[in-house]
Amino acid sequence: MSDENEMINNDIFVPEIPLPDDNAMEHDIIDDECDTAFKFCFCGLGQAGNRICESFYKLGYRRVCAINTNKQDLASIQIPEENKFVMDIGEGGAGKDPTKGEKAITTYYEDVYDLMRRSFGRKFDRILILSGLGGGTGTGTISKVIDIAHDIAQSFKLEQQGSETIVGALVSLPQNGEGKRVNSNAISTLNNLIGLVCGDKRSLSPLILVDNDRISKLYPGLTVSQFWNVANQSITSLFHLFNNIATKDSDITTFDRADLNDILKSGLVTFGATPLSKWDSPTDISYAIRDNLKRNILVSDVDLLTAETAACIVVGHPDVFNEVPQDNLNHGFEMLSRIMKGEKGVVHRGIYKGNVKDKKGNPSMVVYTMIGELGKPEQRMQEMGNIANIDIKQNQGRLGRIKK
């Protein structure tokens, strides 16, 4: 036998084994269909969280998933079916009982982990958990889903235990008319979340509060079918504006990715937006910003005196910027710093040209604010406590405080 034949006979037999594509890893990268400074992942819990998740999807975000215990509620959410998961508890949903939601997430923990990991892919910057407070599914599952988000972030080495967190939450407070049980559930869960943003080693940030009772007062004429769309679009559109504008250069003053990150890591956060009707004097701008903070659509009662970081973005028509003095805008920025009253306070500024017009079609200007490092809404929580027959002051030690 020749040496060549001996070599062939000694070769290892290789059966036909299906091998992965060399580029298989690329399928783990999910791209948004919108320009953003940060690649966010969104996980919606329960009916309220699912709706907010859907609203982000409609803006072009693609790293999304929605979880519910009610198949009917989840069926109407317009995101890809493979990004939905029903935790079947055999009762048609958790109702207003958080213990059912908690039991469900314990049972389906690994399924939810797989859903989130598959829906988010491997390349992202931050995870935001979306939920209503007061119901059964969202309220009962949010703590464990936050843990899952940390597990996923750490598995991809995007977060290390004890390091700066990339996991945040956007939660909605119930309307007063939803009753004792719902408000009691909301207070308990809210305080648990506030505990996660306490101190220097916060494990949750940002924590964004949406007050549905506040929205109903700001938009009293909304019909039943309009209410949730307006509420969800308000917060998601404002959130996206900051995430999008941080990618844009300005020939005046630029708000960049580092500025946005400074606020995203600052604990309790709120937003606002106010159109300007006049800008002839410095006080016109400063009044608009004060009005902005009073009328912000997320939560009305937060302690601005604790705020240490903020963003103030002015978007105006080019014709307006040809008229308004720079000093007028500076006065508005300085006024925001005075409201914050913190020696460490920083106001990140942005001035951008855009095709901004008022309702009559005239060139106009809009001021957007984003405030971080806020104290918790004591007055609003006491209001919820009164409905739930809970004395917030008496339970202060149990409920905890945001530390400075």
Task: Set down the secondary structure blueprint.
Blueprint: H1 3-10, E1 40-45, H2 46-58, E2 64-68, H3 71-75, E3 84-86, H4 98-107, H5 109-120, E4 126-132, H6 137-155, E5 167-173, H7 180-196, E6 207-211, H8 212-218, H9 224-245, H10 257-264, E7 268-276, H11 282-294, E8 309-316, H12 318-321, H13 326-340, E9 346-353, E10 365-372, H14 378-388, H15 396-399
Parallel strand pairs: 1-2, 1-4, 2-3, 4-5, 5-6, 6-7, 8-9
Antiparallel strand pairs: 7-10, 8-10
Can you describe this structure?
The protein is of the alpha/beta class and 404 residues long. It has 2 domains: 28-205 and 378-384, 3-Layer(aba) Sandwich (Rossmann fold); 265-372, 60s Ribosomal Protein L30, Chain: A (2-Layer Sandwich). It is 42% helix and 16% strand. The chain has helices at residues 3-10, 46-58, 71-75, 98-107, 109-120, 137-155, 180-196, 212-218, 224-245, 257-264, 282-294, 318-321, 326-340, 378-388, 396-399; strands spanning 40-45, 64-68, 84-86, 126-132, 167-173, 207-211, 268-276, 309-316, 346-353, 365-372. A 10-stranded mixed beta sheet has the order 3-2-1-4-5-6-7-10-8-9, with helices on both faces. Strand 1 (40-45), helix 2 (46-58) and strand 2 (64-68) form a beta-alpha-beta unit.
Defining key terms:
404 residues, alpha/beta, Rossmann fold, ten-stranded mixed β-sheet, 16% strand
Query: Quick one: how many beta strands?
Result: 10
**Overall form:** globular
CATH architecture of the largest domain: 3-Layer(aba) Sandwich
The CATH class of the largest domain: Alpha Beta
Largest sheet: 10 strands, mixed
Query: Would you tell me the overall average pLDDT?
Result: 84
What string, H for helix and E for strand, traces the elements in order?
Answer: HEHEHEHHEHEHEHHHEHEHHEEHH
The CATH topology assignment of the largest domain is Rossmann fold
Q: How many distinct helices? A: 15
Q: Write the CATH homologous superfamily of the largest domain.
A: Tubulin/FtsZ, GTPase domain
Q: Which strands sit side by side, in order, in the main sheet?
A: 3-2-1-4-5-6-7-10-8-9
